[in-house]
Design a protein that fits this description.
single chain, 254 residues, alpha/beta, Rossmann fold, two-stranded antiparallel sheet, 7 helices, 22% strand, globular
């Protein structure tokens, strides 16, 4: 029996005169080992892609984190050098991808930048430099050459009781890592808050109209999927949803 196929968003990385379309290996490893799924990278080619043909062939979508931020022009903000860098080709790919994937009720897991893309795609806004807002903590990663230190669990989040995230992780607090400068500002219509940090930063959301798995986290569960229970449960649940989608697609085609 084949494993479910998950479409993974890619960044555009200029390297030595060439534009590379890439995703960090931890996301791919988490899909293979944590979700028991096969990842396929989606190049950030924007309107050149036939997204519907691609989505016909996959069982879920994973939106990765990135050093780049969603361009502020897409949610009514002003672009400044400080709230960059930007990747407009990724924006032109992921925002329409999100809308098409949700319309098809495909399983969707959005992480960090992915959560922010989801909010913008559905009409919400973002705030930049969260650490400069009164009452907010510094959500940036610690300065270190060690990735384990940068991705270390940094604070807890409170999960909304009875919500979709609680169905996966339970209602208790969980410890999460923190590597972001931006966060959700105005929540998009059709999204529900699933978890928040003590400083009120929105840490997880779900899509109201989606009948299955459509969750987004501001933290990075992919990094600790092999050792952290909450991270492992998130990717396992996503994998289960992708397998259910694969089975349903096969039955409808029979």
């Amino acid at each position: 029996m084949r494993k479910p196929v998950v479409l993974v968003s890619a960044d555009v990385k200029p390297i030595e005169g060439f534009d590379w379309h890439a995703a960090i290996s931890s996301y791919l490893d988490a899909l293979v080992h944590g979700a028991d799924a096969m990842p396929v990278l989606l190049p950030a080619l924007g309107p050149a892609l036939d997204l519907d043909s691609l989505l016909d062939r996959v069982d879920g979508v994973l939106l990765t984190g990135s050093r780049s931020n969603v361009h502020p022009s897409l949610y009514g903000g002003d672009a400044h050098e400080r709230n960059g860098p930007f990747d407009t080709r990724r924006d032109a790919t992921t925002l329409p991808l999100i809308r098409r994937a949700l319309a098809r009720h495909l399983p969707l897991f959005a992480i960090c930048r992915g959560l922010q893309e989801l909010n913008v795609a559905l009409g919400g806004t973002l705030v930049s430099e969260v650490q400069d807002i009164d009452g907010r903590r510094d959500h940036r990663a610690p300065e270190s050459d060690s990735m384990d230190e940068r991705f270390a669990l940094a604070h807890h989040v409170d999960i909304v009781p009875g919500g979709r995230l609680a169905a996966v992780l339970g209602d208790a607090r969980v410890e999460v890592n923190s590597l972001h400068r931006q966060a959700i500002g105005a929540l998009a219509p059709g999204l529900t808050i699933e978890a928040q940090a003590e400083d009120s930063t929105i840490e997880a959301v779900s899509v109201d109209a989606h009948p299955g798995f459509a969750l987004a986290t501001q933290w990075h569960p992919e990094y600790w999927v092999g050792s952290d229970s909450a991270s492992a449960r998130l990717f396992a649940a996503f994998g289960e949803a992708a397998r259910a989608q694969m089975t349903a697609t096969a039955r409808s085609a029979a």
